[in-house]
Design goal:
- The chain has about 120 residues and is mostly helical.
- It has 2 domains: about 5-60; about 85-120, no CATH class.
- It is built from 4 helices and 2 strands; from the N terminus they run αααββα.
- A two-stranded antiparallel sheet has the order 1-2.
- The longest helix has about 35 residues, at about 10-45.
- The protein is flat.
Length: about 120
Amino acid sequence: MELAKLSLTELRRLQSKVETEIRRRSDTTRRDLLKKMQKMAADQGMSLSDLLPSAAVAEEKSAPAKRKSKAAGKKTGPVPVKYRHPENPAIGWSGRGRKPQWVVDWLAQNKPLVELEVSAGK
């Protein structure tokens, strides 16, 4: 393949394919090596985290099925509503995550978010 004859679009497409393949092979190699090291440690009656403190993190990454969510150890309940819809008080938003469209529209009208707060008496 002669790179000089390829168009810029073709070169970018090729670059993307090469980067994807490099990532795929790196990930596969990393997982394979980790499995081999875990087996070697297990053959000696140990775990990788017994040998290397940072290996506990690597072991979690290699087993996505066993991976816990960030909140797995926390007991959290529903988050209280912090903001209410100006026309329909049955609709609320906790202030976390993506803003609902009615909040986006409110802010687009240059109205302060403070006016929608539950404590603002609405």
